[in-house]
Amino acid sequence: MGTQLHEIDFTDLSNNSLDLFTISNVNIGSKWLWIHFSAVYIVTIFICYQLYNEYKYISSERIAYFYSSKPQPHQFTILVRGIPVSVCSSVSESVETFFTEFHPTTYLSHMVVHRTSKLRNLINEAKTLSKRLLHLQSEPSQHTYRHIGLFGQRVDLVDHYGKKLVDIEQSVRLEQSNVSLAEETRAAFVSFKSRYGAAIAFHLPQSTNPTQWVTEQAPEPDDVYWPFFSSSFMRTWISKLVVIVACILLTILFLIPVVVVQGLTNLSQLETWLPFLKSILTITFFGQVITGYLPNLILQLFLKIVPPIMEFLSSIQGYISHSDIEKSACKKVLWFTIWNIFFATVFSGSVLSKVSIFLEPKNIPAKLAVAVPAQASFFIAYVVTSGWTSISSELFRIIPLIFSLVTRCCKNTDELEVPSLPYHRDIPKILFFGLLGITYFFLAPLILPFLLAYLCLAYIIFSNQFINVYMPKYETAGKFWPIVHNSMIFSLVLMHAIAIGIFTLKKLSIASTLLFPLPVLTLLFNAYCRKRFLPIFIAYPAEVLIKKDKEEASVPAMAEFYDKLVTAYRDPALMPIQYSVNSESLNRPLMSSADF
Amino acid sequence: MGTQLHEIDFTDLSNNSLDLFTISNVNIGSKWLWIHFSAVYIVTIFICYQLYNEYKYISSERIAYFYSSKPQPHQFTILVRGIPVSVCSSVSESVETFFTEFHPTTYLSHMVVHRTSKLRNLINEAKTLSKRLLHLQSEPSQHTYRHIGLFGQRVDLVDHYGKKLVDIEQSVRLEQSNVSLAEETRAAFVSFKSRYGAAIAFHLPQSTNPTQWVTEQAPEPDDVYWPFFSSSFMRTWISKLVVIVACILLTILFLIPVVVVQGLTNLSQLETWLPFLKSILTITFFGQVITGYLPNLILQLFLKIVPPIMEFLSSIQGYISHSDIEKSACKKVLWFTIWNIFFATVFSGSVLSKVSIFLEPKNIPAKLAVAVPAQASFFIAYVVTSGWTSISSELFRIIPLIFSLVTRCCKNTDELEVPSLPYHRDIPKILFFGLLGITYFFLAPLILPFLLAYLCLAYIIFSNQFINVYMPKYETAGKFWPIVHNSMIFSLVLMHAIAIGIFTLKKLSIASTLLFPLPVLTLLFNAYCRKRFLPIFIAYPAEVLIKKDKEEASVPAMAEFYDKLVTAYRDPALMPIQYSVNSESLNRPLMSSADF
Asked: Per the confidence metrics, is the pTM higher than 0.80?
């Protein structure tokens, strides 16, 4: 069940003009192929050189950013999971005992994580109610009355909502005191007096049982993903495994429902469903456009829901921060895109036959060499239809606009939240165009001007969006770069596999033999980069931490910062709430910590 | 170029009696196969349960050993490589500056590593000479005179050697002072005041450039492998890559020379070379034995040189201690054995055809299912011929005996060094019999009594050898167990692959489908064990280190220990030597630190 359905029309329409510029016009054994061969070498070396420089630049920027940053709670804090509890002590006591014993000089405080899903629902309810109340109060002329029940008396809505809000606040307070006593998870944020102290606790294995006292770096306080907080090692591990399996299944089987829906939209089916279109569909041009574009449109719509699905899967995988969830979702969407757009288009046939290709690694280059060049014109069209349009729609943000208009009508609020860029939606998209450029540049160079136009557009539009539209929800500190790097390396190796296949196909076996070292060298280059740069993206080195700690040792503001640090990782659901009395300061306590 | 040559005779001889008990007698689609099926499940679960218990036991023993150990230099020391040096400072100054700045409270001292290969040769020369001198002096009646040169005068040998020794010692001292000034490598042993301090420096990335200040745990001082001391990150990395490639090539291509030599030993060839054997060879029995065993003997002799080769390869891979070299060689020999005895026997045909089997992972079970049961009788014979004989020869240590007799005759020394067990030779051997047991127990259960006999023998003999013969050169502290664990897991998964193939071959596709979860579950079990136990085998956790440090904080003997620690990692080649004057204390300074 490939996506051949929708691409046939593309290639039919464009074959005549575009195929002039593809490698299929080069004769078997032609000397011209050596130009392609040298192009493969030169471009690989050039890209690797650029990747190296960029990795170096970004890692130095990352260090520079750290040096210039103010003291931030997440630099001083780690998250500890799998806290063992003895019979007669609480989680909090257990943490206190452990860290005062083993990290006496650096340990500052801790904050045990609670299960607050119930509480969070109550608070959301209170929040909505108070908003409605505020809206009613702000327009005193519109004080409305309503019948309660079928035969009930008329009541003042402001009065009614006010009472209800007080009730909810009461139960929130009750629940809060319950939660803080009973529903402790076996996880806690532990803060230290220095960055170096936190780093020591993070890097060193703490316990003789490596599944207990598992440490990881804490995210920024506003970045913590409170809802799903799996604390035990086994649960995190199992949910991770389940999510990986779910992801692989989704990635492999995604096209089945898509193709089924696409199959329902053939001409005759459309005519039966929407008879009024009959007259239009009989015109050949419209018929072609609809059968050509409708399946593509359906695919695009299905693809739109993938980033949220992947984000959801990542969120139940046990990550503790929005940033980690987005990073993980970004990887998932990237592999999904490469599989479901590149490989699904290139290899027609059933899902199983596609999977089986990868079970015979020896034949991959040969199969790629046959299938990839055949789809050149489809992908050129794809750059235009999907790339150009998506980047332009990014500028106008039509869907968020409609969505915001609709919600503003319904909810009667004037609130405007500044959006943040969904990295897991946009990075894979751009990287996929990078993959197309790298794999097709020597097969069908005509794709390059289209891609260049896309990239220029993307650069201008995203620059604008970053400056004027989006506000980052968290500081990435360059942590997404390794994904970009790995994706480029994968593109290069894929391109080498295709090139080896092509040269074998064109009976230029010397060239294909001479190409063999290239993927090996590229992978070695990648291995070197992993050793040279990746550690900086995982954790800051001791040198940097100690220098930064020393710099601030004498700053008087630090005492104040430590005071803040102690409560920085408090669950926003456990903060005292006050909506009913003072309606002026509405939302403040929640907004300051949870929404931004 | 398989080893079919030599196994044909085995199977011919034994087919009649042994094949009665193999799975090939079970009819296609027979109900009896379900017994094999359940045996596969039960044995897998049993082995995994045992592996879990054993891993748990050994890791707890490892911790207990650490708690009970006296303070040892390697617990307080790390090795730092890739030390950056500025223009105007030496390596030693650079280390001093770095660690006093970043680890001021815990840093104790350091010892820069020097290039001493030249010096080591000189010292060896002096050592040999002094031994000879001692031998001559101890038997004054045998004072011999010798002509120097063709027409030279007669000289007193004691006098002659004495003078020569003084000369060499002179140049050693000169060289020592040179070396300690000039030939510094960019590596140093850095000692700390506490185990925890050393662990912090080991675990935390030190520098903004992860290829500089690369830290690793120091080995025991006597375990340090001084000769090959690659200090820069790039050199270590490249030599590692080269060694891996060399190992793979050796493993894959090893059989080519073996088969060529084996081919030279067919009957007619032997008769031309050794005509006096002609009369014996014409007797059918002798002919059969020779053509059957001679190729096998040649294979065995070739196999004997593999552990030293692998040890050599590991030693140039950049490991810093004999124990690491042996551990790495142990893994190499294990894979070599599995490839060159198991797979080479099972899959006949050229090397390339064997490699190509692994390029089509889908077909591996089917091919295994056909080939593995056919070799059952060969492997039963192998257990007897190779296993039983090798373990008995271990008891008598014939080769070391002959070797020691020969050297004693030549060298005239009465010295007896206590040997240490070459783990990299014996562990792979035993593990390979484990692999045979696991893969053949349901194909040809007749192998089990033979294996049992082997294992009982091995247990008794090795117990004896450990108590009475060998002396460990270093404390392994259970570090070899993960190799055993991984090898067992590999054997299980291999057995599952064979079982799936067999059930497909016997047209019992439900059984083969039902087996699919088993390898997945086994690998998950392994992944869990890696998380649960492996970290303990890499480094001791903070909890243990801090407790141990605290225990000893008040012990007065620690001051003395610190004094020793400062000089513990001195290169033995840089120690002052004195052979010529005081012949009583010969060898002492060297023996105490370098030989044991």
From this structure: yes
